[in-house]
Task: inverse folding
């Protein structure tokens, strides 16, 4: 029973890490990366659709992205969405493709981005702690219902804490890497 709870908690915590990684990928660093824009929502025939489903995104140079829509009629909508986003990028269009040139990050912008990273890291830590709390409550309920012994509960709590610590450390490591990428000039 406890093994099942721990396995479920681990799966959910892994999901929190995956979600964090996806969020951090959308925060820009000094280099161009397709993940900056691939989840940008585009109004495609009145349906919000991620850009990666509407266009191919490539990196022709370290500081530029090229977006080639599969359907030329979406070019204007993609351009609008990029301008409306908080990326602070100006799209250049030649009628067929959109070029995004990433200007070098200023020191202030880098600090703002690091603050965004820290906020996302804290959200991930909170998610992991919430999963721990839910699993812990389930263990206590099992003990109250006499499905497990006190010793099983104590062992399960210990294993759950180790699991939580492991994932929180993973969040911290992921955050350090992203912060270093942002601060790298």
Result:
């Amino acid at each position: 029973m406890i093994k099942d709870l721990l396995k479920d908690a681990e799966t959910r915590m892994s999901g929190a890490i995956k979600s964090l990684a996806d969020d951090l990928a959308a925060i820009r660093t000094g280099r161009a990366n397709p993940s900056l824009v691939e989840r940008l929502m585009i109004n495609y025939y009145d349906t919000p659709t991620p850009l990666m489903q509407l266009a191919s995104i490539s990196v022709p140079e370290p500081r530029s992205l090229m977006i080639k829509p599969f359907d030329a009629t979406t070019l204007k909508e993609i351009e609008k969405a990029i301008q409306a986003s908080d990326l602070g990028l100006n799209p250049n269009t030649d009628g067929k493709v959109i070029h995004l040139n990433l200007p070098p990050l200023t020191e202030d912008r880098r600090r703002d981005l690091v603050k965004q990273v820290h906020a996302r890291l804290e959200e991930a830590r909170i998610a992991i702690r919430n999963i721990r709390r839910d699993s812990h409550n389930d263990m206590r309920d099992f003990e109250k219902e006499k499905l497990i012994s006190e010793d099983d509960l104590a062992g399960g709590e210990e294993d759950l804490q180790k699991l939580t610590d492991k994932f929180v450390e993973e969040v911290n490591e992921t955050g350090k890497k992203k912060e270093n990428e942002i601060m790298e000039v």
Remarks:
- The two ends are 51 Å apart (CA to CA).
- The chain is about 55% helix and 15% strand.
- The mean pLDDT is 90.
- The first strand starts at residue 41 and ends at 44.
